[in-house]
Design goal:
Elements: E1 15-17, E2 22-25, E3 29-32, E4 39-45, E5 64-70, E6 74-78, E7 100-102, E8 105-107, E9 156-157, E10 161-162, E11 189-191, E12 198-200, E13 267-272, E14 274-276, H1 282-291, E15 299-306, E16 330-332, E17 340-342, E18 345-350, E19 370-372, E20 375-377, E21 458-460, E22 467-469, E23 535-540, E24 546-549, E25 554-557, E26 566-570, E27 574-578
Antiparallel strand pairs: 1-14, 2-13, 3-6, 4-5, 4-13, 6-7, 7-8, 9-10, 11-12, 15-16, 15-17, 15-23, 18-19, 18-27, 19-20, 21-22, 23-26, 24-27, 25-26
């Protein structure tokens, strides 16, 4: 019999159009999936085990599972709490963490630790000093494939004493060693399902003893809490919330009677997948499209990516003049360049901040990079101050400061180099009229239009009207020496300060242009100014289904003759979602 897989006998193919939507649950509840979602990837981390008391071991990390499952509609998510720490009075045993689950996937709570034998769990707890010479806190309990955790370590019983580390999702807990060195918690696992690299499920560290001055065991990366140190006293640490880290073990100091620390609560993260594997008949494709489970086509984008501008510098000495900040790097595909293709789902966009204006005798701060997919525009270089007096390199370079011999040069532009160039060099200090160099702009180098002038930026019409971006900041100048404050370059560059008593301070670069900030002056002083933040604008065909977040970012549909193209403008960092 023919199947919905192009007539091939066997497993029926599955489509899913989840738009790569990510949901994070830090407390129990339900997750309502996208209408077209049929397959999800889920990270399920259980609560970590509690640390033991009285030279106790570290708690085991909560079970860690990262799997793909079939799911649709509304699915229940349970977030396991961490186990309580062991009390100083008997039985001294920390509690096991509680299980976490999403649909059919369950991760087991981490094993609790004590001053003797530890408990098993997702990862096992570490034995205390009296736990004997074998592992009792077994990991991956109950067993799953791939394993959800690892065992805890073995403690040491005299003449020095120490508790062992709890197991982590990637490594077993370390054994305690002589002379009384407490065991470290096992390492957790790095996961980027949320869009950021985060480490989960580290084991808790074991405790040292009052009988020695060894340090408590370190917590495993991934939220594991450190064990107690007696001298100098450092208390045990609980597992970090929503990581599933094990709690740290406590020591045997009767004056403190410290309990072990609790494990960290778990977490569930769900990513709704967009995929259609296998061989499909046209009829099956049509049916999946009608059900809303067939993935959308990729979308091509034109882009404009402008980084944050550099801050102006300030040379706070007699007759000191600072250089203007360089513009943020300027990169675009519009019009006629190579577009960027994005698949269905959410994609991060970074809008770089402007660099701070330099304080007394400081160079200006570097602007921050702006990023869209594989395209990175580099932040503008800061203007020169007292040290260094040369402008800094960047997307466009900052201007040099003075007075100085030899003349301070401007910073290099297009750093690191890309083609086409993303910017130009800053201008050098002019000693003849005591004027700081102008910052480079996207369209020309600093000082091109005169001493201290910021370099002009470049106009672009990706938004359907010409707007100029990435102008360099002006250098400051001294009228008594024949100089003048340099104007900022077109495209948001800020004007430099005036070196006169009570002279006006510099102007900042304009927000969301990537313009460089104006340079400040010395004695008598007037402040420098920061660079303007960057911007990212992307343009897609009118048929594309795109959205932008957070709400300060916008998507507009262009009127004729632009053919109804959609333009997403990002004035702050966020995400663009395709599909």
């Amino acid at each position: 019999m023919a199947r919905g897989n192009g007539g091939i006998i066997g497993k029926t193919n599955q489509t899913s159009f989840g738009k790569c939507t990510v949901t994070t649950k830090t407390s129990s509840g339900s997750v309502t999936l996208q209408p077209g979602t049929r397959i999800v990837r889920t990270l399920v981390v259980a609560g970590g085990g509690g640390g033991g008391s009285t030279i106790g071991g570290g708690g085991g990390a909560g079970g860690y599972r990262d799997v793909e499952i079939n799911a649709q509609g509304t699915v229940c998510a349970v977030i396991g709490s961490g186990g309580a720490g062991g009390t100083y009075a008997a039985p001294k045993l920390g509690g096991n963490g509680n299980d976490s689950s999403f649909g059919s996937v369950t991760s087991a709570g981490g094993g609790g630790a004590s001053n003797a034998s530890a408990s098993s769990g997702g990862s096992g707890g570490g034995n205390g000093y009296a736990g004997g010479g074998s592992v009792t806190g077994i990991g991956n309990t109950p067993p799953v494939d791939p394993p959800q955790g690892n065992p805890g370590g073995i403690g040491v019983n005299g003449p020095f004493y120490g508790g062992a580390g709890g197991g982590g999702s990637s490594a077993a807990g370390s054994n305690a060693g002589n002379p009384g060195a407490a065991g470290a918690g096992g390492t957790g696992t790095v996961n980027s399902i949320s869009g950021s690299c985060v480490t989960y499920a580290g084991g808790g560290g074991g405790s040292s003893s009052i009988n020695n001055n060894q340090a408590g065991g370190t917590g495993g990366p991934g939220g594991g809490g450190a064990g107690e140190t007696n001298s100098p006293y450092v208390p045990a640490v609980a597992g970090t919330a929503n990581t599933g880290g094990g709690g740290g073990g406590s020591s045997n100091n009767p004056c403190r009677s410290s309990p072990g620390k609790a494990g960290g609560s778990g977490i569930v993260i769900v990513k709704e997948l967009t995929k259609a594997s296998g061989v499909w008949s046209l009829k099956s494709q049509l049916k999946a499209q009608q059900q809303g489970t067939w993935p959308n086509e990729d979308v091509e984008f034109d882009y404009l990516v402008v980084a944050g501008g550099g801050g102006g510098g300030r040379c706070n000495v007699s007759s000191g003049v600072g250089g203007g900040g360089g513009a943020g790097g300027f990169r675009t595909s519009f019009p006629g360049g190579t577009k960027i293709t994005l698949s269905a789902g959410s994609h991060p966009i970074t809008v770089g901040a402007g660099g701070a204006g330099g304080g007394p005798n400081e160079g200006g701060g570097l602007g921050t990079d702006s990023i869209f997919s594989t395209i990175t525009s580099t932040g503008g270089g800061g203007g020169g101050g007292l040290s260094p007096r040369s402008g800094a390199a960047g997307g466009s370079g900052g201007g040099g400061s003075g007075p100085t011999t030899p003349t301070a040069n401007g910073g290099a532009g297009n750093t690191p180099p890309v083609s086409p160039s993303q910017g130009n060099a800053g201008g050098a200090y002019n000693p003849a009229i005591n004027t700081g160099g102008g910052g480079g702009g996207a369209g020309e180098a600093g000082n091109t239009d005169g001493p201290g002038h910021g370099g002009d930026g470049t106009a672009n019409s990706i938004s359907n009207s010409p707007v100029t971006y990435a102008g360099g900041g002006g250098g400051s100048g001294q009228p008594a020496a024949g100089g003048a404050p340099g104007p900022g370059g077109t495209g948001g560059g800020g004007k430099g300060a005036t070196l006169t008593p009570g002279g006006p301070a510099a102007d900042p670069g304009t927000v969301n242009t990537g313009g460089g900030g104006g340079g400040g002056t010395g004695t008598p002083g007037a402040g420098s100014a920061g660079g303007g933040s960057g911007i990212v604008i992307v343009r897609a065909p009118g048929t594309a289904n795109i959205s932008a977040s957070p709400g300060t970012n916008t998507v507009t549909t262009l009127p004729a003759p632009a053919g109804g193209c959609k333009v997403a403008t990002f004035t702050v960092s966020g995400d663009i979602t395709v599909g």
